[in-house]
Amino acid sequence: MTPRIRTLALACAAAALAAPLLTAPAQATPTPPRTGFEETDGARWTTQPEEQRLLSTVDKASERISVSRVGTTKQDRPLRLVRIGERPTKSVVLLICSQHGDEPSGREACLSTIRDLAYAKDKKTQRFLRRTTLLVVPTANPDGRAADTRGNSDGVDINRDHIALKTAEGRALAAVIRDHRPDVIYDLHEYGSTPQYYDKDLFDLWPRNLNTDEAVHEEARTLSKAYVRPAAEADGYTTGTYGIWTDPVTGEPIKQTAGDGQERILRNVSGIKHAAGLLIESRVDPLTEAEKKDEALNNRRRVKSQASALEGLFTYSDERRARLERATGAARAEGYRDRGPVYLGGADNDPAEPAEIIQNPPCRYRLDAAQYGDIKDELALHGVTVKRDKSGAYVPLRQAARALIPLLLDERAPYHMVTARPDMDC
Q1: Which residue among 281, 311, 334, 378 is the active-site one?
Q2: Would you give per-residue pLDDT tens digits along the chain (426 residues)?
Q3: CA–CA separation, 117 and 95 (whole Å)
């Protein structure tokens, strides 16, 4: 039987706001801290000082928790990474919570999950954490959360900055992915519904970018369809595919409003970087008359639905660990074979046009000294291997980041950083 955590510690059961994730017995003293959201029964969101106190408390209370600073925002707020595990493991799962500052429910689910795992004493949870390292960025956009805005303090959507890496937030997340090579990247968001056609409790979506390795793509779809959605549905929540309007009678898709293969979005970068990525979106809008009258009730439903989905993620991570590790490991090794096309467009539900396919990629891209100076830091953050020479530098495609490199350097790529010179003479 797979391990489960509870989104709230049992010592705080009277104020429990989230669905169970892993079963945990009564907690040892001291009493586990509670979030501001829990303290107010969902009347308001946890403040950043409250988040910092909670993380400091669990860091001191549990040897399986470590909290580090991985970046600083323009407004001097810390970007924190929480590592949860009994020991270093090959299997790594990364949660990115609330990239958009006005989408707080995922952050609340992440904070309570961190706390519960810090204090859980049951053998199943301990076994889970001996085999899996869970990494959490509890607030991926602190400036946006403070202002309750989608973008950061410059108004930039961080979830459109995972190629250029111009924001402090995007750079910090890229470094975490490079340094820890997660097998799963789970990205928590919220969405506004459209009555009848687009109003599920939860939507999710895997990497659609065509450069995602086939086995990794299949793992991400399995995470969605066989684990996350069933877990949420078992708790009474409705689910669907993000960005697809459906007919309320037939259930057939009638309109696509999002969900393309654009490489600068985190769920697609996840696939390109060989992780089973999943975007999860909880519904902001109230579902019932009671929720319309009681904002706290609506807020609790938003957080509980995210917690239910997390239950599916943890079960997946435990049950499919070996298959997932094989898939992500093979995908990283595949780049060294330096074979096959690279896609500059298209998606798994939208075939690429001929002009969007590099059928015979170059063996390397050459950068002059000025170009290399302009983007050397970003290449390093992406984990791209670069070779220096007298004229500047060159980037060989024979490496784990093979599918990413043309997206960064080829003039035909929609979001390329510079126009490098392709070299076919190898």
Answers
A1: 281
A2: 334 444 333 333 333 333 334 433 334 447 899 999 999 999 999 999 999 999 999 999 999 999 999 999 999 999 999 999 999 999 999 999 999 999 999 999 999 999 999 999 999 889 999 999 999 999 999 999 999 999 999 999 999 999 999 999 999 999 999 999 999 999 999 999 998 899 999 999 999 999 999 999 999 999 999 999 999 999 999 999 999 999 988 989 999 888 899 999 999 999 999 999 999 999 999 989 999 999 999 999 999 999 999 999 999 999 999 999 999 999 999 999 999 999 999 999 999 999 999 999 999 999 999 999 999 999 999 999 999 999 999 999 999 999 999 999 999 999 999 999 999 998
A3: 14
What gap in Å lies between CA 281 and CA 106, rounded to an integer?
9
Q: Would you list the domain boundaries of the chain? A: 5-330, 338-423
Distance of CA 116 to the CA centre of its chain: 20
Active site residue 411: no
58-65 contacts at long range (C-beta below 8 A, 24 or more positions apart): 58/32, 58/33, 58/114, 58/115, 58/118, 58/119, 61/30, 61/32, 61/118, 61/119, 62/118, 62/119, 64/117, 64/118, 64/129, 65/114, 65/117, 65/118
CA dist 139 and 36 (Å) reads 15
- Residue 413 exposed, middle or buried by CB count within 10 Å (0-12, 13-18, 19+): buried
CB atoms near residue 119 (< 10 Å):
26
Strands of 37-90, DSSP E:
65-72, 78-84
Q: How many CB atoms lie within 10 A of CB 380?
A: 14
Rounded Cα distance, 169 and 138, in Å: 12
| Residues 155/143, Cβ–Cβ less than 8 Å | no
Q: Is 257 exposed, middle or buried (0-12, 13-18, 19+ CB in 10 A)?
A: exposed
Beta strands per DSSP E along 351-420: 357-358, 364-368, 387-389, 392-396
Q: Hey, what are 411's tokens?
A: 């003039």
Q: Please tell me the class of the 5-330 domain.
A: alpha beta
Per-residue tokens: 371? 């170009």
Q: Which helix (H) or strand (E) holds 184?
A: strand 184-191
